[in-house]
Amino acid sequence: MARPRLALALFLLALCAHVHVLPVWSHGDTGSTGAACLRNVGVKLQASFLPGLVTIDGLAADWSSVSGSSFQLNPALTDDSANAYPGGSMQIKVAHDGHDVFFLVQVPGAYMFDANEQNMAAMALMFPIGDDATYHNMGGCPEPAGVCNSTNCFGHEVDLIHFELNQAIPGRLYGGNLADSINGTGRDSIGKLNDAYAFNPHCRSYDGMTPSGLLTGGGLNNWRGSWTHSTTDTAYGLVATDSPFGALDGAGTYTFEFARPLRTSDVLQQDAQFTIGSTHGMAAAFWFPTGANSGWQPYQHYSASCDWLQLEIISGASSSIGTSRSWSALSTVSLLVSLMSLAVAVAVGWWVRQSTGSRVSFNPISSSL
Ligand SMILES: *[C@@H]1O[C@H](CO)[C@@H](O)[C@H](O)[C@H]1NC(C)=O
Ligand SMILES: *[C@@H]1O[C@H](CO)[C@@H](O)[C@H](O)[C@H]1NC(C)=O
């Protein structure tokens, strides 16, 4: 028994060593050129079992007991830290409740809004689906636009959620909705919180559509999400006519909250499937208007890492040990209270029985009227 185990250990060790020396490149589509990039590689985000903690309202206060991770935002294509996002670091927190997985993403940045410009602040998360899906090149399928499809890019699928803010009211819920569900797509034609997938940066689409734009159906937007900026006042509720929702150029932080069922009904390899107790790949990106209220191009985004981060969905069983003690204490108290109630009931019964026999006589109601 010892020998195979030793061999396995050596093999795993060799595998680890191999993984660490593998060159990893940034998110750009410049082929296999570029320096090896290991920024934040191996960082693990841990989603603990925290049912009933989070409301998806774009506000972060309910996450205060959850610890998060901070990431410098470098340009996604070059990972050039000299041109990092100037506003500050992205903070990510994760949790799950056994049914949904929750994400809180916060990025400092002035409130920007331009009614004629769609491309204001935007946020995306990316997860590998296929076994060959690389962070580099968003899945890394070598087929060009117009040729790439689910057959010749099989295994390179990545899952995307992309949320653009202009049409969404702070604190409201966007993502899955009836109109787009009936069409069988992951599009969100109401709030632009889209459920999408990609094989590479030139082969992207909403769930239920091909990269060339054909509607196949069979897709669904499984996400819901909300946003606020610290300059928005959501206390009394907002309507569309309140837009812009904050003081223009007001310094503050963007807060995004997202939720999705761990599992979806997807049969097209367009959704990542999460499992309690497992670790999955993940990436996060942020778009921000470049000049004074002028929009971005799709490639102009910042990324929290230059390879997959790790997302661990922690089993509730591993965190229930701490709470089981308080449960048993509570049960003991309940048992004592029940026993005391029983004793009181028996005593009262006995007393009533004793009394009726001697002093208290029973008067029918009619006789006392
Ligand atoms: C994908 O494209 C290839 C050609 O590269 C073609 O043979 C195949 O039928 C296409 N598959 C689908 C599902 O469109
Ligand atoms: C649903 O599909 C129809 C036909 O393609 C299209 O006209 C309509 O705009 C779509 N609706 C939504 C909400 O995307």
TrEMBL record:
One of its GO terms (molecular function) is metal ion binding. InterPro entries: Cyt-c552/DMSO_Rdtase_haem-bd. CDD domains: DOMON_like. The keyword Electron transport applies. Residues 1-21 form the signal peptide. The chain crosses the membrane at residues 327-352. Residues 61-290 form the Cytochrome c-552/DMSO reductase-like haem-binding domain. It holds the Pfam family EB_dh. This is Cytochrome c-552/DMSO reductase-like haem-binding domain-containing protein.
